[in-house]
Amino acid sequence: MSAETLHISEIFHSIQGESSFAGWPCAFIRLAGCGHGCIGCDSAYAERDGVALKVEKIIQRTLAFQAPFIEVTGGEPLLQPAVHSLMRQLCDLDQKVLLETGGFLSVARVDRRVHKIIDLKPPSSGVCDQNNPENIELALAAEPPCRHTFEFKIVIANKEDYEWATSLLHKHQLTTSFTVMMGVAFGQLDPAELAEWMLHDRIRARMQLQLHKYIWDPALRGV
Which helix (H) or strand (E) element contains residue 14? Predict the structure, then answer.
């Protein structure tokens, strides 16, 4: 295993709360650092430096949970180059690896075996202009079965976000080829409103709630 080091915010075992894998037990590796300043970020504590751990130690601690899935998240996990070695080694160990990325950085270097959950930032995030268009291009250019390792997530806080999202989805026809998850910003939008908009527009996307925030206190870390 690699002697490379990553700065880690936390490693924990929980129920996957978002994405098409919601509901599954999952081991989470939350990398430290981001710097993009999304409004309403629910893991802002991961902006801090974190603890330096060798990739080998991270893998050992994560495998101890014996979870069916492992998610690498942040912060923004792709900021640290050694994350690619971590994900590759986990895949080599026959682990099902998920990557949740803010969508600011290209996923071009990510191991093809990793399932990529790309968070597209709407206007309410304040960083909509930082979405990296290359990630959509890479997804559209991927051939099966690699195409199935991409999915997109959009967190909706208001009608403007929803209209922005539907315009983007139609422009690139993302719902034709990919799983697209649309969820509410917790505490900012009534889930019933989003459901009504999606039903009215016959949009071919999946609605999601942040499951972990309904199971536990939404401010609680390590879940």
Answer: strand 5-15
List pLDDT tens digits, range 177-211.
999 999 999 999 999 999 999 999 999 999 999 99
- pLDDT, tens only, 97-115: 999 999 999 999 999 999 9
- Dmax (CA) for the chain in angstroms is 53
With CA atoms as reference, report the closest residue to 67 among 75, 56, 76, 59.
59
Look at the alpha carbons of 133, 33, 101, 157 in this order and tell me if their dihedral is positive or negative.
negative
Where does residue 155 rank: exposed (0-12), middle (13-18), buried (19+ CB within 10 A)? buried
- Give the count of beta carbons closer than 10 Å to the beta carbon of residue 77: 27
Q: CA 99 → CA 105, 110, 117, distances in Å?
A: 12, 9, 6
Q: Residue 70's closest CA among 79, 78, 61, 57?
A: 61
User: Per 3-state DSSP, what percentage of the chain is helix, strand, and coil (rounded to 5)?
Assistant: 35, 25, 40
pTM for the predicted model, two decimal places = 0.94
- Give the C-alpha separation, 207 to 30, whole Å: 24
Cα 117 to the center of its chain, rounded Å: 4
Q: Can you list the domains of the chain with their CATH numbers?
A: 5-215 (3.20.20.70)
Q: Report how far residue 223's alpha carbon sits from residue 217's, in angstroms, rounded to the nearest whole number.
A: 9
